[in-house]
């Protein structure tokens, strides 16, 4: 049983890494939103499994928050927003999908190198979960860096946050309050960015963040 | 006595894969038609097609070479040998030690090599387009397959399929790396069998086609043999996935006739389930642009590499 | 004593080289047959020597010390398992190439520029493998380089060949310089240049590391490792085809021999970062080499780039061997090293076969550009058949030999999760993926090479009127093809023959390969993996035979010839076929942006505009741009600055000489 619970935890965390890669692979915004929803679903499954294994009921709350907020509310809202804004549906990537995926591989390897020897004495759930969570975080960052479109940058940011939650639940000890406050801060950030998006769009007719740069002062 | 029996069982496997392959194709076509709310032809239709094609005279282009005439048989033979080496209803068959999973992959590579050459023999634009694209996909699908083999082999400690299957039955565990390998293998299988997101087996005369473009100039018995080979390949891949990831019910080396029978029945069940799932996926998804395919197959390569890397850093993944 | 016979044969080769000009002056047609015939016989004797030393055990091995060369060293020669194995590789290739050349040489326009250097080249390669002291080794190495340079310059009327010769000469001198420094470091302050004393001397670890780097630069540049490969695709194709075969198939192996001899045998215990360096270079060469090969239009240059790929594969195996050796995993190291030498042998077979095929195409049609060929399968059926065999073997397809050695390397990779170093744990699977990628790309490359050259419709009058090559050429190719098949179907004896070599290099050997059951090979243990090329071959034969028999007997065997169907729109112009460039376009599009920074600019005129549409493609050779171009700039800059020295007065020259002399004396005074 011990072995099985460990393997299941790894499988779910590995599933999150996989879904992160699927997000890097997507070249359509609506597809990306669907995959992001799947990311949150896997996260909530993973958290729920940890709650069950660790017999920690408050983690079920975290799982529920992840499911309701990140898997349903935010994707639906973003979906709505994309349609409202009439955003260009293709995602422009910096440097193509293939190289981005390769870079992602490198990041996963890096997080393995960093986490596995560092936490060699820690218990195996935490150790390998942490390594996978760090990969999710780094992949989220990579996504934010390589995408030009504001919406996919938001998605990258939120997948990064999913990685943080994964790391926290694996580490056995994040209080519920922290989790809830993190969740709400993300929500607030989301609303702010949403409002912001509408504003940029009004101003510049695009949400390509590259365009913002062009209007910066002091630039020719 | 034991040797004769072993060779006999091996022979049964070879005949069985050959006999069931067109049936599997017929089954998938039928299911697909039903999912699209059509009646669809009978499951036996591919057998009838093959029989009819075999009896017809073969029409060869004026400038077809010896390679064009012999390639179908070589394609068929290499595919058949590969299919005969994948454990289907029983593990530990007598000749299963002749080739491991890497060799099976390479055998399929030989078949593809001849097919691509045959596509170029007449010197038509369609043949060239098919061969060129087939080789492009294979440049990613083959390493992906090798990396998946690595993942599986590192978990099971062997590249021999019989040993892998036995290991998976005895130590059935959930593994991150195996999950990655399974998804990668499914992508490779879809690519290699020219199924929907990559290629459309039902179209002709479309600029995006790959497999059909290469065999455009074939007719009669040559075409029949090639069609049979591609049916065998589909059967091979479904059996392969079943053998690695769902090896339950397969007969062991020393099981008697009853074990073999149970193995055969479960195998046919697995084929049906596999075919059904594949068709379900196909009907739910649209075909990709050709230059999106390398990214799709590259995904499989990446999954295989990721699985292998995880196993290299920690055996518990 | 095989070694005495070997040395006598080498002397014989040198003698043939000396008399060749006289023969050519007398009567060129005879000279060709005599020189190549003599080379064939002498190479055969050397091959027998190598085989007897490899298979016969220590009774047939030995060392010789001759009082020639530097007086305080003399000349040492040795025939141990390693040199015997490479003697076999060298002389089998040399023997078949000489046989082939008896036919091919008849097409040579200026035999006087080829015949004297050819036996000299053979002698040089043999001497490198046989010599056992640094001085003899370097002299032989330089002899080999210069004679092959002369062969590259045989067709010097072509400006491209002259450039190739120039680049080759530069790189060869650079390589020899690096080897010189490497041996200097190994010999240490005492200056003992005999291999046996170098082997037993104590080596300082960081100096050994420096030796590895120098060997990678020196031997690696001769072998064609990226980024030192730039001369190879220029020089190998420029020589006559049988020499191209020798340079690609055999001379690169001599370089591999030099690397193995120094790094595994002479310089002491390896460190783990050596493996990292060698693996990285090997994997990079494998993929970049084949990516270049896929895009080539010149058949011989394509083959030369594919040599870069195969050398990369050999070095992947050697890197694995080093990794296992530092961690005292003798069995795994033996597997990796054996696989790698076996691949070197296999490559010498199929690369010679392919270059001979290219030579036949060249003599038959006068063309090397595959865009102008096509349909040769009808005009040159036997060459086509044999070239196809070479393509199958080099693409690592069972049941031929290329597959066996790559399979063994993959098996060695599967043993490496036990390595303790983190860097290796990441690098090894990555190089496994690169190896698989290279193999798959090689298949695409050779489908293209064979399909465009031999299949489809002729693209030029030259291809339409091509004719089959002479019997000598075809028979030489049959011998190679047969050996490719034998080495693929019965690899066991070949691996057994290499076990003394791995014993010498890493102190372990692969398990003895069983004959029963079914000639299968077992790299580690039966439960891990096994492969029987014989059974696979037998099954393929039986299955295709059965299919043909059943269909022909019980169904139909009628054939009707008709115009091609081509979806109902056949176009009689051969220009509508897929060309070599169009075949490679998808691959270029997928891999080009990463490997070559490929950029495509399309300008489509607006409707109504009569301007032509344009498509410009730019590929950048990053190796050249980032390594050689800056170097070239620096050299030019220095040359500009030093140019003034050319216009000084005699007095200033004298004072320069005087100053240099005084400076040296001061140096000596302060040093000692």
Label this structure with key terms:
heterotrimer, B: 317 residues, mainly alpha, 71% helix, C: 672 residues, two-stranded antiparallel sheet, globular
Characterise this structure.
The complex is a heterotrimer of chains A (220), B (317) and C (672). Chain A is mainly α and 220 residues long. Chain A has one domain. Helix content of chain A is 82%, strand content 0%. Chain A has helices at 2-25, 29-54, 57-85, 97-118, 124-146, 150-170, 176-204, 209-214. Chain A is globular, with a radius of gyration of 18 Å. Chain B is mostly helical. Chain B has one domain. Chain B has eleven helices and one strand, in the order ααβααααααααα. Chain B has helices spanning 2-35, 45-55, 66-85, 101-121, 125-156, 161-170, 176-192, 211-214, 220-245, 257-284, 293-313; one strand at residues 58-61. The radius of gyration of chain B is 19 Å and the shape is globular. The mean pLDDT of chain B is 89. In chain C, strands 1-2 form a two-stranded antiparallel ribbon. A two-stranded antiparallel ribbon of chain C has the order 4-5. Chain C contains 25 helices and five strands. At the B-C interface, strand 1, helix 3, helix 4, helix 5 and helix 9 of B face helix 15, helix 16, helix 17, helix 22 and strand 3 of C. Strand 1 (58-61) of chain B pairs parallel with strand 3 (559-562) of chain C, so a sheet runs across the interface.
